[in-house]
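User: Could you check the structure of this?
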Amino acid sequence: MRLNPTLSTKQSEARRKLAKALLGLATASLCHRAVSSTGGAAGRAENLLFDPRHEFLMMRHADAPGYGDPETMRLDDCASQRNLGDRGRQQAIDTGHWLRQQRLKDLRVWSSPWCRCKDTARLLGFGEPIIKDFLGSFFRDPVRSATQTVTLSAALKSWFDEEPSLALIVVTHQVNMSAYTGRSASSGEIFRIRISSNGQAKSVESMKT
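Assistant: Sure, the predicted structure tokens are below.
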């Protein structure tokens, strides 16, 4: 029996078209997966904890056993102050690890001059903190609350007026955080704060306790 040459040619052409179509589908699928994978990774990388141009973190010092400070305390003598315990030191180290897990690899750190705040700030692992007197505790002298809070707001306004790309974390005391945000904080708790144009807290969210 003789094959029809025209039919054979048509069948070969159909097979070639089918193979070409299947190859195109496979290539498109691979490209789609590659683009989706790249886009997802980029999206995750850009999904930062917060926007450093408009927000900052405020942290109460880590766990320090006791209440207040001795009457004889001096800022230049850590032994005269209430200090971090073992739990507090580990809490600060763990908090630093947690911050890096949030893709915060570098931070500018401001700290109260009290030793428990400076130690907390250092143990976060982002370098030596910048000491700010207005972050110092006014627990024993509440009349200083208004002045220090206004000074803090002015300092934050100056910081954000520069449109920083570097994230800021402020390590201070319960009374300072309460005066600035209107909320109390437990030892080691972090507030994520969105700032207004005048340096005051616009919104406050607890991020970690």
